[in-house]
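Listing S7. Sequence submitted for prediction.
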Amino acid sequence: LSALEVSDGWVTSPVQTVLDCAATLPFDQALTIADSALRSTRVTRRELEGRVELWPGRGRARVTRMVAHADGRSSGPIESVLRAICIEVPGLSVEPQVKVTRAGRVIGTVDLADQALRIIIEAEGFEFHGDRLAFDRDCWRYDECVAAGWVVLRFTWDHVMNRPEWVREILEQVVATRRPVVA
């Protein structure tokens, strides 16, 4: 291995590790690892893009695709996996951690949003939404988003991890219904 691929003399560098994962793992797993590495700042987008140029033929398409979609704004693994599902949906273009406003004030920051189609996609975990106050806050926030013209979709960890085909089906149906409204 070259000096670019190794750190501390015997382990692969963080950049090399991310790219090796991209070349060998399923897309959602590779994206989760890349998002985490970018979020930690141990790896930069510039480093990943620079190394794609040098990547050998085997796995190059997988590595290139992952680097194109990796985003350190993603808040955690469930959000990265959900975004990987979204990437597979034709006509859907989401970005992580989007601020949503209504009547000139910020409603909140949502996990994923397609701003053109005005679709919000949330990766929901019980730990952040499991008490009365959190439930009340969530209801207010989602009602405010709907009043501002957004469609809000909420998917649990179980949906994202164990029922990705169903998640994709729901996303495809909502995209199909939103296209005529937005166009």
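Caption to Listing S7: primary sequence and predicted structure tokens for the chain studied. The chain has nine helices and six strands. The radius of gyration is 18 Å.
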